[in-house]
Structures are given as structure tokens and as C-alpha cells.
Amino acid sequence: MDRVLVVDKPSGMTSHDVVQRVRRSSRVKKVGHTGTLDPAATGVLVLLMGKATRLAQFFVNDDKEYRGHMVLGVTTDSQDADGRVLEKGDPSGVTLPEIENAFAQFVGEIEQVPPMVSAVKHEGTPLYVLARKGVVVDREARRIVVQKLEVTGFESPRVEFEIVCSSGTYVRTIASDVGELLGCGAHLGELSRTRVGVFGVEQMASLGELERARRDLSSFGVPMLEALSHLPLLTVDEWEEESLSTGGAIDVAPERLAESPDDLVRITADGAELLAIGRRSAEKNGTIAVKPMRVFADQR
Q1: pTM of the predicted structure, to 2 decimals
Q2: CATH of 64-196, one of 3.20.20.150, 3.10.20.810, 1.10.287.130, 3.30.2350.10
Q3: Residue of 38, 82, 177, 251 with catalytic role
Q4: Closest listed residue to residue 158, CA positions, set 87, 82, 77, 96
Q5: Which residue of 30, 33, 39, 82 is most buried, as measured by CB atoms within 10 A?
């Protein structure tokens, strides 16, 4: 079972919990994910099954899209509703234009300090382990990109929003930082992920549906070739297939291969299964060399 599944993660479960349950019900030993969701968060969790686990590196930097709401006037130690209340403020005077102006300060390329309650490691120890012991350490700021942060509803103290951001962004930290900027404090109330790269809510299946299907997951998710549909497709002949399968590069005519921003290409021999992922070089002497990065020939 070599597929990419899009699971609607329930609130209250870790991403690892979801992986374990799908692994048990499907009897597939190799199951992984492309990026965690906080336990309280819901929505799109992309799982990789079987040989598809070898595709993880090609999804790890995908942009994410979320819908959620933040609560003004309350600051918590975890920056979300599960945390201990640290401080309360008065949000009654905060206006919609002020919120929109604060949101604008977090759009673009910004620096973000990871929260203490996170899986980021400090000297080999996850920050959340230190946080449970009451230990607070300095954290290095990370560069993230927020393409969109918009208010979709406001009834004080609740602010509904949509955000599109780069991988590694902590949305609850943005909520907390917005509250600090407004002067009343805030925390993340609820969060649902609606998209990871090309995978969205329209492809989701519930955890219950997947568990009831057990080993027959062919009607869920997408095959490996389709999961990389954003990459150009190269269909090869028998000789080229044999060369790629043993790690050898092939030369192809430019008209057979469209350009891509990162020079990656998905390769198939039959139009149905992924043979390999390759990287194209610049055109030279009328041909383009394609060298395999990941080969899946043994699945045929």
C-alpha cells in the first residue's frame, strides 16, 4: 500500500497517535507524516504509506493554510486554550481596524521565536519537556514567511482569521504576538489546517473511515505519481527505465521535459506508477541529462 493519505485529524490527538492508529488498522508497517499538528488542532494531516514514506523530503517545505480564531484579553503559557492563564487584559476598546493593522505587521518574511511548549529542541531536549519542569530557556528566532493573514470575523473578544504561511510557522505564537501588539494579550482558541501544499480538505478522510477500511485503502488518498502532480512528468522507454532503475542518468530531448523551479521531475514508465524522482540539468549539446534522486523500481 504505497499511497499518500489526507486525514482529518481530530482534536485531542497527537499526529503520532493518528499514525499509530492507521498503522495498526491497515497493517502497513511504514507510515509517517509530512508535518505535525498540535494536539488541539484539527484538519489536514498528510500521511505517507509504504514506499511513499521516501517522498517526505519533497513535502516538508510545503506552505500551510489554516482557519481559526484567537481570543483577546487572555495570555496563556502555551499560547493556546490548553495552557495556564498567565495574564488577563481588557480587550473592550480594541477595534477591527486596529486588529487588521496588527495583522499586517505579521505578513511577509518575519522572525519568530518558537514557543516553549513546542517540539523544537534545546541541547537535545524538546522545549515542551523543559516547559513541563518550569524551565524557560532562550530560543533562537527563526525566519518564516506569512503570505496571508486576514480577519474573517470579529465579535470581541473573538477574532476569526485565515492564514497562509511557510512550514515551521507557529500560528499560536502569531496569535500571542498580535495580542501583545494590541496591548491586551491573546491566545489561540481553535485552529484547523485546511491545506498542506497541494493537499486540501476536499481530499480528507476521517480516521474512522480509514480504520473501517482496514487494509483496503485504495479508495482513499492518491498514488505516489499523482501526489507529485506539481512536478513535470517524464515518460521513459524500456531502455531508459532500466538505466534509471540502476541509478544511471539518461539524456532526453528538451521537448520531452517541461521546466520546473527546482529542476525536479517525476518519472514513469507506464503512466500509472512512479518509477523515480529525478533532477534535470541545464541543456547541453541539444539534450538534458536527468539523474535519479529516488528510485522506486522495485515496486513494479
Answers
A1: 0.89
A2: 3.30.2350.10
A3: 38
A4: 96
A5: 33
